Amino acid sequence: MKYHILAFVAGFILDLIIGDPHNFPHPIRLIGKLIDVLDKKWNNGSRHQQRIMGRWLVVTVTGSAVLATAILIFVFYLIHPIAGIVVEAILTYYILATKSLRVESMKVCRALECRDVEGARHAVSMIVGRDTSVLDDIGIAKAAIETVAENASDGVIAPLIFTAIGGPILGFFYKAVNTMDSMVGYKNDKYLYFGRTAALLDDVVNFVPSRISAWLMIIACFFLGNDFSARDAIRIHKRDCRKHASPNSAQTESTAAGALGIQLAGDAVYFGEVHKKPFIGDALRPVEYADIRRVNKLMYGAAILGEVICTAFMCVIAFV
């Protein structure tokens, strides 16, 4: 357990320092390629066949991720404990996306601040699934804020919790599920049946972490200064945390909207089709470009709190 704690902390620090450089080898990309290959090969036939093959997709992708991670950790710990710690730390780093989320969203912020709306539109299209061609500058800013708020759970806190509980093996299980959901978990003609199992499993594994993430963001508000209101974060979270088709997505989004005093969500365009969505939060003030910076600060505060709490629990188990 002591080795795992060292690797857990080192992996988190690596993520904050390095992030996800472009063209850098990354196992999540390998998982994505596997999903893409199986999607093209298996996503056909009748609805029943699509459901069956969608289940096999989940088994194959999660099984491959878990098995590959377990073998790596076993082999390197067998060689030497230090080698095991290094590899486990690197794998933990790969699981987290704190800095990369900030880097990608800040590209949007900087482009908007430079009045480069087209550049901002392109940058935000890299981190959201909606059609960005219809967004104006404020719509682009809102999209970036929403994706940081939502991915504070999916990309940071949830994988942190799973890795704390079961090491990189459980961490990569979570990332495999989350990656499948992001690629095939759509309710459209192509993925309604094939991606159903992946989408349902993603809802299950994120149910508790998304709620923990929301409360970590609320607690972080107390330490982040006057730009953040813990009181409004609690109020909006309680009122709006279920205003989403997913049982989990509005948890952190409502918290961020309340903390910043802005209104998020509303109708969005996906694959050329308008999806009606309720608003989240109260428009106590207009959305500003700087809110992208603020929501990143909120995400970092929640991530650091999550790391501290998870590490504390691991230490209690190891030393008590």
Present the secondary structure layout.
Blueprint: H1 2-18, H2 27-42, H3 47-79, H4 81-95, H5 98-113, H6 117-125, H7 137-184, H8 196-221, H9 230-240, H10 249-260, E1 264-265, E2 268-270, E3 273-275, E4 279-280, H11 290-319
Antiparallel strand pairs: 1-4, 2-3
Helix pairs in contact: 1-4, 1-11, 2-3, 2-7, 3-4, 3-7, 4-7, 5-6, 5-7, 5-11, 6-7, 7-8, 7-10, 7-11, 8-9, 8-10, 8-11, 9-10
Provide a short characterization of the protein structure:
The chain is mainly alpha-helical and 320 residues long.
What is the arithmetic mean of pLDDT?
93
Beta-strand percentage? under 5%
Largest sheet: 2 strands, antiparallel
Shape: globular
- Rg calculated over all Cα atoms: 20 Å
Structural class: mainly alpha
Order of helices and strands: HHHHHHHHHHEEEEH
Please give the share of residues in helix.
over 70%
Number of domains: 1
Poorly predicted sequence stretches spanning 5 or more consecutive residues:
none
Care to describe what's here?
Strand 2 and strand 3 form a beta hairpin. Helix 2 (27-42) packs across helix 7 (137-184), helix 7 (137-184) packs parallel to helix 11 (290-319) and helix 8 (196-221) packs across helix 11. 73% of the residues lie in helices and 3% in strands. The protein is mainly alpha-helical and 320 residues long. The chain has one domain (2-319). The strands form two sheets. It has a two-stranded antiparallel sheet with strand order 1-4.
